[in-house]
């Protein structure tokens, strides 16, 4: 993929914040899984079913190691971060929230960490309390903690903004919220891709990841749920695998995590995710973070020389994500189209973060987001293309 051409030019893939390209090891594992090793899991005693089950269940331990979880039983497989957050909304939050109860959110959240809480606002009278970022795009943990009141039942916050690249001090938020008896859900969709994560050190109750951003297949993901929170959750989806016994009169449920995994899962997708995480841990997430920090610093320096480029968010220690507009009114969709003609893939739009766009006074931005395979030469190609845009649009 990364050696191909687009529109007659070498591909420069800078849309990693939306979805990452896959290592050959992942592609081969998925192909082998379907071509040579496929069967349903947990269902049979034959060789292929046992093999698929063994590979599938091994991924739970891989994710636990990747996230620093104390036990693989705290890992629930999902189709991605969106399903994980909805699981918390339906299985944990909905049964215990009353009209007037509060959920604290930052304005930087992705829609996946907003809409499930709006469901509770619409259906149960829950109040959403919003915390705005600072002018540089940083999020002050003390402002988040100050928003916690007597009726606050949950804090839901991203660890890294998919628009601004802001890294959030979620450990401080979790420590302060825990002292107030309030659980915290952390959206790790962006953060887990770029730097080491340890949920024990963070101190969160829930932590979601999505596989397609972690160089794994789409339709894969997981949520870390602290064991004491699992005990407070009712089943969300009902069906096969999540039960212990079913009769005409009653049903009893399996122990977590299977209690929250109904039906035939994304077997090969999850196996592919395990391979992707092994790949990342083999590289070393600290090495990935260091490489991307060098890219970020180089890109910041180059983009700062374009005095007609408006980059949103410059928080200290931000990730290698740059959302921008051009002075003069060129629409981000036009910018993205022109860049694409030069082989450069960026995203344009609201990035599923409309409340943040409203806060910034924008309807859309173009976004270049870097990954472990990007280079400084590709930063230069982006800058050259932006200079062409500036000349084109005046």
TrEMBL record:
CDD domains, per database record: SufS_like (cd06453)
EC numbers: 2.8.1.7
UniProt keyword list: Pyridoxal phosphate, Transferase
GO molecular function terms noted in the UniProt entry: cysteine desulfurase activity; pyridoxal phosphate binding
Residue ranges constituting the Aminotransferase class V domain according to the UniProt record: 12-382
InterPro entries from the UniProt entry: Aminotrans_V_dom, Aminotrans_V_PyrdxlP_BS, Cys_dSase_SufS, PyrdxlP-dep_Trfase, PyrdxlP-dep_Trfase_major, PyrdxlP-dep_Trfase_small
Top-level division of the source organism's lineage: Bacteria
GO biological process, one term: cysteine metabolic process
Cofactor(s) named in the record: pyridoxal 5'-phosphate
Transmembrane segments: none
Substrates-to-products reaction catalysed: (sulfur carrier)-H + L-cysteine = (sulfur carrier)-SH + L-alanine
Family in the record: Belongs to the class-V pyridoxal-phosphate-dependent aminotransferase family. Csd subfamily.
Reported function: Catalyzes the removal of elemental sulfur and selenium atoms from L-cysteine, L-cystine, L-selenocysteine, and L-selenocystine to produce L-alanine.
Matches recorded under PANTHER family: CYSTEINE DESULFURASE, CYSTEINE DESULFURASE 1, CHLOROPLASTIC
Designated name of the protein: Cysteine desulfurase
Organism the protein comes from: Phaeovulum veldkampii DSM 11550
